[in-house]
Design brief:
Keywords: Signal
Bound molecules: S-adenosylmethionine
Structural class: alpha+beta
Shape: globular
Number of domains: 2
Protein name: SET domain-containing protein
Strand order of the largest sheet: 5-11-10
Strand content: 15-25%
CATH topology of the largest domain: Beta-clip-like
Distance between the termini: 28 Å
Radius of gyration: 21 Å
Pfam families: SET (PF00856)
InterPro entries: SET_dom, SET_dom_sf
Helix content: 10-25%
Length: 316
C-alpha cells in the first residue's frame, strides 16, 4: 500500500519520474511509503527526479522563472509561447532590476551560501566581502568604489552593476569602467562558488529549498568537466562537478545565442596573436577591450556542454 498520493504507485519507479499525475505537492516534504513483506521502505518522492523533472514537474518553475503557467490560456500566454519558441527562452518581468528585486536576489544568494556551508561545505566559502583595495591592487588598480557592494564576496572582480539586458534576456551584468583586454573579470576561486560532486546531494539540496529559491538554484547551477592542472593536482573540483555561484555571476548572459562574440572568456588568454585559450577552470578574462557600459557576455559553451549531457553523467 502507498501512503500519500494514492494515484501514484511509488513501487513503480517509472511512475515517479515525469508523470504529471504523480507529481508531488509542492514544498510539503512528503514521502511515499512502500510496504514490503517484512519492512517498510520510506522513499522520498523526489528520489529519481532528473534536473528537468525537478524544474518542470516538482517545482513547476515556468511561472517562477519565465512568468508563464500551464493553466494560463489567454492571448498574452499564446504570444509568450510564440516568443519562447523563437528565442528559446522568455523573461516577462519588466521590472527585473528594481532595488526590491535585487534585494530578493541577494537574500537568495546569502541563503544558498549559508545552507551550502552548513550542509555541503566541500570548498571554502567566505561570508565577508574581500578588502576592496587589496583586490584592486592585485587585479589592475580599478576604482572599486564604483562597484555596488554585494553581501559576501563576489567572483566578479571588475567594476560592474546588474542591469536590464532587455525583454528576452532579463537581467545582465554590465561593466561600469573600461576593462583592458586580458584583465581578470571572474575569479571562481574567490570563495563564492559552491561545488557538488554527486548528483543526488545536489538534488537533495534543491528539494529542501523554498520553491522560488529552488527554481533559481536549478537555473543557476551548471555542470563542468574540470581538467587537473597536473598529475598531482588533487583539487576536489577536478573531474565532473556541479557548480553554484552565490553572487551576480548567475546573471551573466550568453553571447552565442545572439551570434555575438563573447567579451568574457573562460581559460587563460592566448599568449600571442592567433594562439589558443587555455583550459577553462575558474578564471574568466576580457577577450578584448571592454568599454564602460557594455554588457559582460560569456560563451556558455566555454564551461558547459551545450547538450547538457553532463547532468545525465553526474546522475541527474
Ligand atoms: C545564468 S542566467 C542569466 C541571467 C538571466 N538573464 C536572468 O535575468 O536571470 C541564464 C538565462 O538567461 C537567459 N539568457 C542568457 N543569455 C541569453 C540570450 N543571449 N538571449 C536570451 N536569453 C538569454 C536564458 O533564460 C538563460 O536560461
Amino acid at each position: 500500500s502507498v501512503s500519500g498520493d494514492a494515484a501514484c504507485d511509488a513501487s513503480d519507479s517509472s511512475s515517479s519520474s515525469g508523470d504529471k499525475n504523480c507529481a508531488p505537492k509542492k514544498d510539503d516534504g512528503s514521502h511515499d511509503a512502500i510496504t514490503g513483506a517484512d519492512e517498510m521502505i520510506v522513499r522520498p518522492i523526489w528520489w529519481e527526479y532528473s534536473i528537468d523533472q525537478l524544474f518542470e514537474d516538482y517545482f513547476d518553475c515556468g511561472s517562477v522563472i519565465y512568468g508563464y503557467s500551464d493553466d494560463n490560456s489567454d492571448d498574452d500566454f499564446v504570444a509568450l509561447l510564440d516568443d519562447r519558441a523563437e528565442r528559446g527562452r522568455y523573461t516577462k518581468n519588466s521590472d527585473v532590476v528594481s532595488e526590491a528585486q535585487l534585494q530578493k536576489l541577494r537574500h537568495q544568494w546569502e541563503m544558498l551560501r549559508e545552507k551550502y556551508v552548513r550542509e555541503v561545505n566541500l570548498v571554502p566559502i567566505f561570508h565577508e566581502a574581500e578588502n576592496d583595495s587589496t583586490t584592486a591592487a592585485r587585479d589592475g588598480g580599478f576604482d572599486f568604489e564604483e562597484r555596488p557592494r554585494t553581501h559576501g564576496v563576489s567572483a566578479i572582480v571588475v567594476p560592474s552593476r546588474i542591469g536590464d539586458a532587455g525583454p528576452t534576456k532579463g537581467r545582465g551584468v554590465f561593466a561600469t569602467a573600461s576593462i583592458p583586454k586580458d584583465s581578470l573579470i571572474i575569479n571562481l576561486d574567490s570563495g563564492s562558488t559552491g561545488v557538488f560532486k554527486v548528483g543526488h546531494s545536489w538534488r537533495e539540496f534543491a528539494v529542501s529549498l523554498p520553491r522560488d529559491v529552488a527554481c533559481n538554484f536549478i537555473e543557476w547551477s551548471w555542470v563542468q568537466m574540470i581538467l587537473p592542472t597536473s598529475e598531482t593536482d588533487d583539487d576536489i573540483r577536478n573531474g565532473l562537478s556541479i557548480f553554484i555561484a552565490f553572487d551576480e555571476t548567475n546573471l551573466m548572459n550568453n553571447a552565442d545565442w545572439d551570434s555575438e562574440e563573447a567579451n568574457t572568456r573562460c581559460g587563460s588568454p592566448p599568449k600571442h596573436q592567433g594562439g589558443e585559450w587555455g583550459h577553462c577552470r575558474f578564471h574568466y578574462y576580457a577577450a578584448r577591450d571592454i568599454a564602460a557600459g557594455e554588457e559582460l557576455l560569456l560563451r556558455y559553451g566555454d564551461f558547459e556542454e551545450i547538450s547538457q549531457r553532463g547532468w545525465v553523467d553526474i546522475g541527474l
